[in-house]
Amino acid sequence: MGSALRCFMDRLYCMAIVLLTFLPWNATAQTCQTASDMDATLRTAIANAADRYFGMAARGDTASLRQNSIPALASDFAGVENTLKAHQLDLSGTQASIKSSFLLNAEDSTPNQQAEFWCGVFNRNGQTANSAAFYLTNLPPGKYAVVLMDANSSNGRIMFSQVLQQAGTDWKLGGLYIKPAQIAGHDSDWFVNQARQYKAKGELHNSWFYYLEARSLISPLPFMSTLATDKLYDESQPLQPTDLPAGGKTATLASSTTTYHLTGVFPEVVGKDLDLIVKYESANVSNTNAAYQDNVNVMKALVTRFPEVRDAFVAVVARAVDTSGRDYGTLLAMKDIK
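and the corresponding structure tokens:
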């Protein structure tokens, strides 16, 4: 199974993932156990492995983490190394506690192209306070543990999540995800309140972007949903703009000289700031001078078309992406986009 290094919805936090890919549609359910459903021996073994791997990560011991990873991850470990490097100051000297854990049992004899795991108690309205759902694709047969941990750093609470795969009597690292639960001291509830205020003022694009950020701050994993994320999804979905790219479809953005095809517009934390990212199609980014000028033109056109974003974001990052997948990015502070 191929590996991938991506950002949640191309935004917010870096993650190293080999085993799993987010899948937004329904599929055949597999078996799942919550921590309370597991026998004590199994629960302890999973917790001990997760604690051990967190300790390695907090020490920056990438060599040991690699040695304790499944072969697919160990053979392409750069994503994990980059993730840990980006968060080393947050993790150094911290202690983590396990918030919840789940055992996913993929019983198929061949990789499951579309698998859903429903964990905990569901009612006729869907999820409950202690339930969770996981949506996976191309998952090989086996037993997997998802362990969600919290760590408190000087910059606030950090969500540290692991996917483990059982190998004999051991639990090997198969995926590692690290992301903040706050931005500049603001948590998900703060962003929800801001989103509602933007909605009341008629600034629907800002409202949509802040709902996305609110969901991200309570979503430790991109392939997991909970009662809280489902509620935010339901509240925000009617606000999804029709003039932004979505569902694999591009959106056009006209500047004074040309029309650009946008592939993504979303909020993302850059440093300690919340910036607006815009990605668009480019014929070729080899000419960096031309790519830079296109990036500037895109940022100007975007802010001209949606002036409300000036009050919601510190900066805009434009990323030109050509047909080969290469990209070229430019960041400008909002005050410098004129």
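(Above: one complete record from the training split.) The radius of gyration is 21 Å.
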